[in-house]
Amino acid sequence: IVIGDVHRFTVGGFRVQFVDLKRQYHFYQSEVETRVQRVFEHGQYILGPEILELENLLSKRVGVKHVTTVSSGTASLEIALRAIGVGPGDEVITVPFTWISSAEAILLVGATPRFVDIEAESFNLDPDRIADAISSRTKALIAVNLFGQMADFGRIFEIAGKAGLSVIEDGAQSFGAAQNGIQSCGASIIGTTSFFPTKPLGCYGDGGAVFTNDDELAERMVSIRSHGLVGDKHCYLGTNGRFDTLQAAILLAKLPHFEGELAQRRRIATRYSSEFLDSCCVPTPLPGNDHVYACYTIRVPKRDEIAERLQIRGIPTKVYYPRCLHDHPALEGLGYQMGDFPVAERAAREVISLPVHPFLTEPEQEKIISVVKDELTPIGPLVP
Predict the structure, then answer these.
(1) How far is CA 219 from the centre of its chain?
(2) What whole-number distance in Å separates Cα of residue 95 and Cα of residue 341?
(3) What residues contact 203, with CB distance under 8 A and at least 6 apart?
(4) Which of 76, 115, 106, 100 is nearest to 88 (CA)?
(5) Bond prior to 336 in cis (omega within 30° of 0)
(6) Model pLDDT for residues 332-366, shown as the tens digit of each residue
């Protein structure tokens, strides 16, 4: 990607977009409009030809036999759980520090989330804590790849395999990442992802996909996506989980540029880390991991104070996530309390994400670095 001389700031009031989807659209406008116009012309708005075309391209990119596009990242998790037979009475292990979809999908199929704490360095599931969470009711494990790098699947598979657990990879924030040469969404029996607009590969609405090498699971997920229909019979309890043809067309226009966007994300993240290393805890790719920096997330003391000061000076930030899942009223019934997951709870108090989208200009990057260093230096680095 070559970013032109595009500015969104003035001398007296610098402003930068946290994610600049308008700027992205202007770079790809012709390709997006051509793709969308084709859909208007053939009129197949549900499961049109773009769906299969996109699924084939995603299959080749990830290196799996089967890809089924679905209506959202949340739907991808629910469909995956239904496909492996998770239901009432079952437990599914996952993490408390993530977006609610991971636990929500488990509850939607009638099962119970069983939380384990995270690793401080990666924010992903801590494999050393899995064994203690396994019970006679445990049927599966959802490993969330937070912020853009994959969880430690080698150790996860070792532990889950001994217990006979199915592992689902939640790659909503890691599409395009890899671990020891294996692409995200292709690491486990079922991989899932999201195409929400702000994800590394995002459409202009909701969307997602499920990935598998298992022929039987693939057929089941295709059926579950469309109300469990097989021929003229509803064979499974399914859902309306189809992906829109128009959104598939938009992804087809953007997919050829995806590698360039990832490279730019990594360049910006590397630059940030070299500048911020002495002032805060910067993201650390674990050995074997290829990080895509869906979010560039640092850890700082007095996080809310810093966020406010950066906002005043024109630097937008986001907090993913200010509360752990067991700290939300909707999940109180699970019986957890504050203090149960100290690593995750500390992360929720300290994390803050900076703009890292691939359309940041050089002047914008320089301004972000200057302001952030200025605000972090007086406080000093955080001891992990």
Answers:
(1) 25
(2) 9
(3) 195, 196, 197, 247, 248, 250, 251, 254
(4) 106
(5) no
(6) 999 999 999 999 999 999 999 999 999 999 999 99
User: Maximum CA pair distance of the chain?
Assistant: 67
φ, ψ (nearest 5 deg) of residue 168: -105, 130
Type of residue found at 138: T
The two tokens of residue 348 are: 């929720």
Rounded to whole angstroms, the Cα distance separating 20 from 279 reads: 27
Task: Give the tens place of pLDDT for each residue, 151-179.
Answer: 999 999 999 999 999 999 999 999 999 99
Do residues 191 and 212 lie in contact, with contact meaning Cβ atoms separated by under 8 Å? yes
* CA-wise closest residue to 228 among 210, 214, 215, 242: 242
Nearest-angstrom CA–CA distance, 50 and 102? 28
SS3 call for 336: coil
Its pTM surpasses 0.90: yes
Rg (CA), the chain: 21
3-class DSSP state of 14: strand
Residue in 89, 80, 95, 49 with CA at minimum distance from that of residue 248? 49
Two tokens, residue 303:
């996080």
d(CA 170, CA 103): 11
